[in-house]
Design a protein that fits this description.
This protein is about 70% helix and about 0% strand. With about 130 residues, it is mainly alpha-helical.
C-alpha cells in the first residue's frame, strides 16, 4: 500500500500530500508497531516502506520466540503433570496443583521436574533447591 501511494504521489507538486500521509502513518501505524523510544523520525513517505518492512520482520521474530517459549513451557508442564500422576497417583494432580503448574515459570517447572526424580512426597517436589 505504501509503495503504491509513494508511486502515485511522485513529484514536487505532491510534496505536502506525501508529508501529510507520512505524518498520519507515523502516528497511526508505526507508533503502534514500535515503542516510541525505538521509532526514528520519518520525514518521507518512501522511508515508511522500509521501516514497515523492517519492523514487521522484527515483530515476526519476536512472535516466533514468544511462541517457542510458550511451547517449551507447555511441554515442561505436561511432562511434569505426567510424572506427578505416575509417581503419586492421578488424585495428586488436583485443580490447585494444575493452576500452580500453569502459572509457574519455565525455570520453576524445570526445577520441579528435577526434584521429582528424588522426591519421596509430592511436597518435596516443590521444595526450593537446596
Amino acid at each position: 500500500m505504501v509503495a503504491r501511494l509513494t508511486k502515485q504521489l511522485k513529484g514536487e507538486h505532491n510534496r505536502e500530500l506525501r508529508r501529510a500521509f507520512t505524518i498520519w502513518i507515523n502516528r497511526m501505524v508505526l507508533k503502534r508497531l514500535a515503542p516510541a523510544d525505538k521509532l526514528p523520525e520519518i520525514n518521507e513517505l518512501s522511508e515508511v516502506q522500509s521501516m514497515l518492512a523492517e519492523r514487521m520482520t522484527q515483530l515476526t521474530q519476536e512472535w516466533q520466540q514468544e511462541g517457542e517459549q510458550r511451547g517449551v513451557k507447555k511441554g515442561e508442564r505436561k511432562l511434569l503433570e505426567r510424572q506427578i500422576i505416575r509417581r503419586f497417583g492421578f488424585n495428586a494432580l488436583n485443580n490447585e496443583l494444575r493452576q500452580k503448574l500453569a502459572s509457574a515459570t519455565i525455570e520453576e517447572l524445570e526445577q520441579w521436574g528435577d526434584n521429582i526424580l528424588d522426591a519421596q512426597t509430592l511436597e518435596e517436589v516443590f521444595q526450593p533447591e537446596p
